[in-house]
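Record type: ASSEMBLY
Status: queued
Input:
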Amino acid sequence: MAETQLDDVRKVFTEDDGNEIVAVNDVSIDIEDGEFLVLVGPSGCGKSTTLRMIAGLESITDGEIRLDDRVINDLPAKERNIAMVFQSYALYPHMTVRENMAFGLEESTDLSDDEIATRVEETAEMMGIDPLLDRKPEELSGGQQQRVALGRAIVREPAVFLMDEPLSNLDAKLRAQMRTELQQLQEQLETTTVYVTHDQTEAMTMGDRIAILNDGELQQVGTPLECYHEPANAFVADFIGEPAMNFFDVTRRNADGDGAVLVGETLEYAVSNDITTAIGDRNELVLGVRPEDIDIQHSDGNPRRADGHTVPATVTVVEPTGDENIVYLDLGEDGSETAIVTIDGMSRIEAGDSVVAHIPEDAIHVFDGKTNEALHNRRVESSEPRAPNI
Amino acid sequence: MSEQTITTEEAATEHETGGISIGRVGLYATLVGLVGFYLIPIESGLVTSIKTPTALQETFPFLPPAGSGITVEKWQIAFDYLAPGMVNSMLFTIPSTILCALLGSMAAYGLTLVDWRGQIAVLALFIAGIFVPYQAVIVPLFQFWSQYMQLGTRLSFLWGLPLLEPHYATILELIITHTAYGIPIVTLLFRSQYKTMSEEMIEAARLDGASVWRVYRRIVLPLSIPMFAVVFIFQFTQIWNEFLFSLTIIGSTNDPAASATLILSGLGQSLEGTDYPLRMAGAFITALPTLLVYVLFADKFAEGVQT
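Status: finished
Output:
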């Protein structure tokens, strides 16, 4: 259990021809004691490199990593008291489960054989792998191997757990189950955990906080809901959420009275004063709206509503997932822009239907078109407890 | 359901036996021919080794002698001649095989699974070592041992001890020479296996608190046992059958350190002509240990070759 701090951590790889590649660029994160932090980002964003630097498997080019205020930059991996779960599980194939789990205790502690045996058995019982203790890894299923890999990390009672995409080799159902189990386990053990994944669903569901990386740069650190509703920039907005947020390139045109109109290829979207204040004098903008915030109605000759928040559209594809339908729209008369909308699974809508898409103003995000920085985020009223539905 | 499977299987076998019989016959005939071609020299050697001089002259080389023409006398003589040489060969072959395998595996581990600067340069030296021809080193090797090292003189204090004899100095020279000469190729063999080893597993062991040496001892070494079998067989055969170093370092068949191959080279040769049965018996006796090593490590060898 330990507080872990990354302070302007930087990793530069030098290629054979002398080219320097910045894999991690001045990343600073404070991970609290007992926190479950998820590092998420597309492949090649530096998340695994960051994790490996914490583990001591990769040297740190610049910056500091501290464990409980002690700088561990130059501490070899074996002295950091950190346990890691690898994507490939990395079990020792010639050892039984029992030996796999005992290995770390034998190598890193002075415990007697009896104490090691007891701890291995207790942990195995907690993980539900005690019947497997005398088997070799090759005799285990993927899910069982995964559990052993976790058990091997847990039995050491390390200061920090590092997990590098530990669930990505499991099938979808088992992955969902292990997700919950891992969370419960982490809560029970209260061990600081850094979890790397490229899967935004895992990040959203598991993390106390998530840290989003792209191209080696930290984009945002926050709770899953903060990152979802108040993304710091267009990258975060796009990466978090499935299906992804809809983006429209727009320019600003001042309206006659209050507010302004954001003009895109197919959109003419009126925004009120508080948004124009946030925009300032920027002209190139990106309008973002989540698929579930757009609602669509059959046009049926309905006149375009006068609030300036609607756009005519044609349905191109409907993907039913059961509880909801994912609807792909061609916007405007000529269909030059597209949007994705999720609607209730019971609504009747078909490809080819002409619809009117309504984008509510309190649900939109506005980003700077040049820096991608968020200028305005949607309004969130999540703090109120939900009234029981009777 | 099960009946159906049986009928289809029957149909399949019928089809195979009935359909392509001519091709099959040709194939088997060729195979039998090849087996004969490869086995006849061995068979001839074996029957020759048990022939009396008369039987040798009266029968074809590949035909077994008649009852009265059989004798194991030549085996007895060959064994008496070769026994000291076999002991000497064992004395340097076994230690150098083991040393080669151990040092080669450690070198491969250090060059493959441990990170440090300048690895490639060192590896290049190892690779170059594989291609140094025997002929090129004979003279320097001879000079090195006989003029510069002179182990026999330097270790003279040892020869008074029980079980130790002065000619062991020569054996020691052979052990060191063979080990040095074998390490490059053995390193390369182990390296090819270690390169396929999961890097994450090695990292996991390091995070588990194991030092570089402990990772080798507890993870890498146990996982390379099949490769050790390959190397044992390969190096044992190489060193046991080696002749040029023996000739260079030992020099004479009469030397108390003479190896089996060295003695074999002169066996059955005299002014009166060649004693073929004796030579054959000697060849078989000398070949036996390598066969034994194959038998002992066969299944691990198969595993190792697969990796």
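Annotation: The first helix of chain A runs from residue 47 to 55.
Annotation: Chain A has a mean pLDDT of 89.
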